[in-house]
Amino acid sequence: MAVTLNLQPALKLTPGQFAELAQINQDLQLELTATGALIIMPPTGGETGNKNFEIYIDLGLWNRETRLGKAFDSSTGFRLPNGAVRSPDVSWLKLERWQALTPEQRKKFLPLCPDFAVELVSETDEIQTTRSKMQEYLTNGLRLGWLIDPETKTVEIYRQNRPVEVLQSPSTLSGEEVLPNFILTLQPIW
C-alpha cells in the first residue's frame, strides 16, 4: 500500500526539490500530488511486474514499428499542468509533442501529460486512488487511458469528454485513434 505524506503547510517542495529528492532516493517510487503531498509507493511483486512488462513490450514493439511517438515505463515522471508529478505504469507521447521539448526538458520529469497511459492495479493499490489518478490524467490532457484490474478482469477506458467505459473480461483492447492499429491482447494479463 502506498504511503502519503502531507507536507504542507510545514513544507512545500518545489519541482527542483522534488526532483532532487527522487534522485537521492532512486530505490523508492515517488509521486507528488497537485496539493503537494508526497506519495511513496512500494515496489510491485513479480506477477504485477511481469504484467506491466507484457503491456510495455507490446506497446514498445508497436511504437518501434510505427515510429509515431515515444513510449515510457513506470519510472518516468510526468510533471502535469496542475503541478503533480505522476508515473503511469506504461505511457506514450505523440512524437510531435516529444520533439517540441528541449533537450534539457527531456532529461527531467517531462513537463506535460502523456497522450496515453495505463495503470495496472496491483495487490497493494486502492482502486479508488487509481481511478482518481486516471481522472487527474484526463483533466491534464490525457487522450486515452486504461485502468486494468487483473483480479476482477475489468478494464476502465478513459477518454476526453466521454464517460468512463467499463469492460468485463475483454480479450483485447484497441489503441483507437490515439495509437492507430495498436491492439493489446489481455491473455497474458488475465
Overview of this protein structure:
The protein is α+β, with helices and mostly antiparallel strands and 190 residues long. It contains five helices and 13 strands. Helix 5 (127-139) links the parallel strand 8 (116-120) and strand 9.
Please supply descriptive tags for the structure shown above.
190 residues, alpha+beta, 6-stranded mixed β-sheet, 3-stranded antiparallel β-sheet, 5 helices, 28% helix, endonuclease activity, nuclease
The pLDDT mean sits at 89
The strand count comes to 13
Name the overall outline.
globular
Radius of gyration: 16 Å
Q: Hey, roughly how much beta strand do the residues contain? A: 25-35%
List low-confidence stretches.
Answer: none
Question: Which percent bin holds the helix content?
Answer: 25-40%
Distance between the termini: 22 Å
| Structure class | alpha+beta
* Number of helical elements: 5
Note the quaternary state here. Answer: single chain
Order of helices and strands: EHEEHEEEEHHEHEEEEE
- Spatial order of the strands forming the largest sheet: 4-7-8-9-10-11
Largest sheet: 6 strands, mixed
